[in-house]
Amino acid sequence: MDLVIFEEKIKYDRLVKVFINLVPLIFVSLFIIFYIDLKIKDLLPGQAFRTENDFYLFSFIMALVAFIYYLFLPKSVLLTREELVIKFPAFSWKIPFNQIKAVREKRGIIYRLAFKWYTSKKNAILIERKRRAGIVICVENAPRFIEVATSLLEEWRRYHPTE
Q: What is the CATH number of domain 75-159?
């Protein structure tokens, strides 16, 4: 990866953080309730699982869903001289400047086809891409990010006029 020129963290509103943390909490609560129902006494009417293996399979699937859910939450956005990089816990999504049409403030909720991570009511930015779906993310300081991204994009276009 190139030298990082600018990095901005993704902004998560308080309500979004509560929801994000609620999913694993619900899964853990279900695990405890079903475990008590299976091992100790009947809490739930009827039989929740036919066998102990069904319970363990269900628990594994719940844990896998929670883990995958966590992997697709963006953590930060980086700007280099050649590309914009969205960092996730397990991977990075690199978007070269030759695919980006513009980086601007996102107003309103509706936008045609786009990958959307609305994690805040404010500070949403739209990364318009050429012949591809746009990307909407919320950063801590949107005006500063847009300013730096636009200047880097213009500088890149000056040195790569054919693309």
A: 2.30.29.30
